[in-house]
Amino acid sequence: MKRPCHAVIVTPYFWPILASSTHLMKDLAEGLAESGLTVTVLTNAPANLTEVALDHPRLQGRIHRGWNPFIRRLGVLPKVCEYAWFLAYFVLRGLFVPKVDLIFVASTPPLAGLPAALLARLKGAKLVYNLQDLFPDSAVVGGMLSAGSPIYRILRRAEALTYRLSDRVSAISPTFSEHVHSLAPGTRVDTVENWVDTDHIRPLEAAEDQAITTFRQGGGFVVQYAGNMGLMQNLEVILQAAQRLKEDRDILFVFIGDGNAKAGLEALARERGLANCVFLPMQPLERVPSVYNACDVGVIPLKPGAAHLAVPSKTWNYLAAGRPVIGCVEDDSPLAAVIRDSGSGSVVPPSDAEALAQATLEYRNSPERVRADGRRGREHVEAHLSRRIAVARFARMFNEMTTEEGT
C-alpha cells in the first residue's frame, strides 16, 4: 500500500504570526492533513519566542519554526534581511525532513521558488510554486525598482526561470496563469483562487459578538480597511475621501492593521484634523471574524497598476462576513471583474478620492443595497471561494502529481 503523499509547505508566516497570508497557509496545512496527506510546515518562529501555538492535532510535531532576528521589523533593509534569513533556514532545515514527495512554496518572499527548486531536486521531490503576486512588477508599482533597469531585467529572468523549474505553478487568477504562459511557455499551470474559511468568517451582528461594537469605535456608518499598510496599498485615497466627508458626522473610517505606511498615515490624519479616521492595531486570528463584521462596507485600495499584480485575499473576508466592498482598482483588473460579476460591491478608479467618497455616500444612503450586495458576496464565496473547495483542489493536485509522475 502506497504511503500518503508527504507535502512540505514553506511559508515565512504561519499562525500565530499575524500576516495577510497566515490564515491561507493555516487552512491549507490543516485541510491537507485532514484529507489524509502527511504535512510538514517550515516557517519563522514568532518574534516573541514565549508565544505558544496550539497546533492542529494532525500537525503536532510537524511545524518547524526557525528563529529569525529580523522578523516583523519595519523598513526595506530589515525586510530583505528577514527574507534572506528565511530562505537559508528553510533550505537547510528541509534537507533533514525525511521522505519528502512534494514542496509547496508561495511567491512570498520573492524568488523563494529558486532555493525551493534546489531543495526539491536534492530531496527528489516535486515543486509547486504558488503565485500570489507578480514580482518584480510589484516592486515597480511599489516604487522600489524602475521598469527596464538592469536589476529589473535580471529579476525578470529569475522569475521566468522559477516557472520553468517548477513542476506545477498554482496561480490565484486566470490573468496570472496567462502571465506564466507568456514568460515560460509549456509550464504546467493550474488556477486556484485564494479562499476564505466560510465557517470561521460568517455574518454576525453586534448582539452576537461584543467585539464588533469595540471595533466600530462608535461610528454610525463604518468604512473599514483591515490588513497590511504597505507599499502596494493606496491608503492615502481613503484619507482624501475622509477629508471630503469630514463634515458628515455619521461616517467613520476605521483602519485596522500595521505596516511601513501606518505611522505616516496617522500623522497625515492628525495634520489634516481628520477626527473621522481611527487607527487600530492588527488583531489576532481568532478576532478576524469580529474585525470584518465591524463595518458597513470594506475598502480595497491599491496603487495604480497593482490590481493587475495582486488579488488581496482580504476581499473574500469581507464578502464572507456579508459586507460589500469598494474596490479602488482599475476596471479591467481581476479584482474588479470579481466584484462586478458577483454583484458584491462597487469599483472606482484607484486614485479617485471623489469617486470613493461618492460610493461611500451611496452605500450610506441605501441600507437595502448594503444588505443586498453583502448577501450576494456571501453567496459568491460560499459557491466558489470556500476553504473546502480550495483544499480539495490542492489535495487532488498533490496526489495526482505524486502518483502519475512516479514519486
From TrEMBL:
List the signal peptide residues: none
Which parts of the sequence belong to the Glycosyltransferase subfamily 4-like N-terminal domain?
Answer: 26-195
Domain Glycosyl transferase family, by residue range, is 219-378
Q: What is this protein called?
A: Glycosyltransferase WbuB
- In its UniProt entry, the species of origin is given as Geothrix edaphica
